[in-house]
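Example record for the data management plan.
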Amino acid sequence: MAALSSSVTSRSYRSGYSASFSPVKGNRHRSLSFLSASSPRGLDIHDLCVRFQSKSARASVFMQDGAIVTDSNPTENKSSLKGLKDEVLSVLSQDVAKVGAESDGQNKSTVSITVVGASGDLAKKKIFPALFALYYEGCLPEHFTIFGYSRSKMTDAELRNMVSRTLTCRIDKRANCGEKMEEFLKRCFYHSGQYDSQEHFTELDKKLKEHEGGRISNRLFYLSIPPNIFVDAVKCASTSASSVNGWTRVIVEKPFGRDSETSAALTKSLKQYLEEDQIFRIDHYLGKELVENLSVLRFSNLIFEPLWSRQYIRNVQFIFSEDFGTEGRGGYFDNYGIIRDIMQNHLLQILALFAMETPVSLDGEDIRNEKVKVLRSMRPIRVEDVVIGQYKSHTKGGVTYPAYTDDKTVPKGSLTPTFAAAALFIDNARWEGVPFLMKAGKALHTRSAEIRVQFRHVPGNLYNRNTVSNLDQATNELVIRVQPDEAIYLRINNKVPGLGMRLDRSNLNLLYSDRYSKEIPDAYERLLLDAIEGERRLFIRSDELDAAWSVFTPLIKEIEEKKRIPEYYPYGSRGPVGAHYLAAKHKVQWGDVSLDQ
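Corresponding structural encoding:
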């Protein structure tokens, strides 16, 4: 007796089985395979072959695993085997055609996106517009549904009306803007409920299933809610509204705790209900175009990578400034301050990307591994290497701007810093001794975010006499402007045209608005799309978060426990004078205050 074995990959159908028939090269036997989704041991195919057995006097034995055992005589068995193959495949094709017609579209997947905290400012101003932009660009799956979930009482129509006010179309595709908006809004629905109610999330689950229509359901929950209710919402979503046949992912907004201890406690609580690969900790600055381009600039351009070390770089500056104050947001801000709000996450994440070694690949885990190494190599920040400030009232042009403590949501006498500057150091072979300066503040003279790389002086420079007296202004500088007016430019020295020998500084400038006509996507668009696709490289891993907090927690505790008084600076100024002394202490000049910035 000879057995016909199965070795061919088969196409699956909703009926629960599939079949394939293929010759085995160099062997007179052929492979006939029956697969079952319902049983790991294979499909009972006895019923499928009743017709064939009734037509043939030769008995075939059907084994438990689906193999067919027949007489091994090739001459006598040839016609029987062919007949068996034709008959069984005929039965299968008829059954598959029938089931396929019944289940058209049922075996496809769908994505359900639930914005938890849908009535909040972040959802209205950023999340819904980003989702529409993805839909407008054709980046969302064919089948998707968006649900808003919050405590506010609202109908589907009221949600759509609220969302429609913040939607905009790409500049280069406005022709069908209204039509696209209507189509998008038809995919938006609303469910009202408490964030800690299993019952309300169960009701949401029923609505999601109705819209999913029996398809494979993938579910993404975006937690646009205060951090004190993260765990309650995750518990309810995980236990009452998770997908049963697809993936479930949760995007968590910062802040991820207030220090190492609270961050670790939050992570532990979240992992009671989710696996690490289900948690997407979002830092929207990592989704900005110029931040993502940072690695491209370094690793794909030969002129930069050899210079990316202490041998050629004198200092690196990460500068963040806003030209407005807390403006009614003081209650939230006062609980965190500028160090937690900007420096510990946005700027530190950019620093880790800037300073990391070349990853093994572009895989998310490989990139995050290298970032963690940088964070773990960082020297603890000393209080004497930090300057903190707070903006005070200032009158300019007949307009009086309020002090931080004039905000009604801020406690009187608050010492929370609205400005901070710090010098950080990485103790590894590449960066030892290079100061990484951070500066972040509110109510300053301008709004900007940029990375400035200042290179060392040219040793034995022949043209020192022909340059300006300040050698710092004669060094090369690479500037990556993250916002606004995204740009990359390199400052070089060159000769001024004429008969004399006079040098001048010029910029080799890549201004994105001039070079690229396409509008730059918002950071939330990129990050939402990555979460849907399961791409994690721009999200923060738990060990990465622990390492980041370990850099700043001792400093924060010392400032708060000793009630260190901030240096006051006028609203709309360049910040505290102490920041300039800090830079001078490390023989650095802030790049954003030079005369020809």
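Summary line stored alongside the record: Confidence is low (pLDDT under 50) at residues 1-79, 95-106.
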